[in-house]
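ingest -> validate -> predict -> emit
validate: passed (alphabet ok, no gaps, 361 aa)
predict: started
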Amino acid sequence: MIYLDYQATTPLAPEALAAMLPWLEAQHANPHSPHRPGRAARAAVEVAREQVAALAPAGGTVSFTSGATEALNWAIKGTTGGIVTLATEHAAVLDTVAAEAARGRAVTVLAVGADGLVDLDRAAAVIRPGVGLVAAMLVNNEIGVIQPVAALAGMARAAGALMLCDAVQGFGREPLPDGCDLIAMSAHKLHGPKGIGGLWIRDGVTLAPLIHGGGQEAAGRSGTLSPALCAGFGMAARLMAERRDIDAAHVARLREIASGMLAGWDVNGSVEHRYHGNLNVRRDGLDVARLMSECRDIAFSAGSACASGSGRSSHVLRAIGLSEVQARSSIRLGFGRYTTEAELRGGLDAIVAAANRQGAL
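emit:
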């Protein structure tokens, strides 16, 4: 199997697995217990917290969550005032914002251009006093476009609002913009385990709790933490910091190969302002379902894994102006640290050949 679906999830780093195993095999104490084994577990959690926080800005703390979906829900539901967000955000933001709108909060969802980028003049017109939260994704999970989050954060601050950045796809890979107050992250998108994420909260920012109970996390999140998941997340974050330049160079080389092999395909979203490990492309008349059936030994995507099986075309592709037919003729390819050049070439050879066969019929 050739794996080209890094936006859905990334392979677990062997070092992260090794960091987790002791806490799965023998060291089972609750990290919130006061006895010695509990304190040892707590120490492991705090080491992991520091490792993750090293990828975030100074002047804030990381609260562990069950994943980015919880982190985003907490950040949105834990704040007050109107909300401004973008039409291309992840469902974890858009659906949560819709739920808040149903409860009476004012919500503005900004359109994006054909390149997937928000118009900053339009954003400035609606990010005004009375808005309590601005939410924008750093790297789009479907088309890889990098939004001008720093500019949006400046507008939010001027209006007295908080800035929430969904950094899931870019955490540890792309520079985190200045001015954010809340940053959501997920371990399994950076070669860590599934089931754990985090919310970075700027010092001085308080959120109403989303989950009530023991209040184990200092910011108010309740629930017993898993030392194993925390340790895996921490090690994955440490590797992202240590390998940042190596990984970036490798991904850039893979992107160069992919771009050459897919010449003639149309790229969805901005070519300039995007993360190199994401390539969302379309070919007129392509039957993606048939393509995926013929290339069943290659893992790639027709859109977000979170929306697969819904029967709907990508809301992101529709938001950048693609027709239903064009959206359904698009595929997403994701690659990264553990993708070899040979795997990428082999996978793309098979995809292009299968697409060409469709064109010949």
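The CA atoms of residues 151 and 350 lie 41 Å apart.
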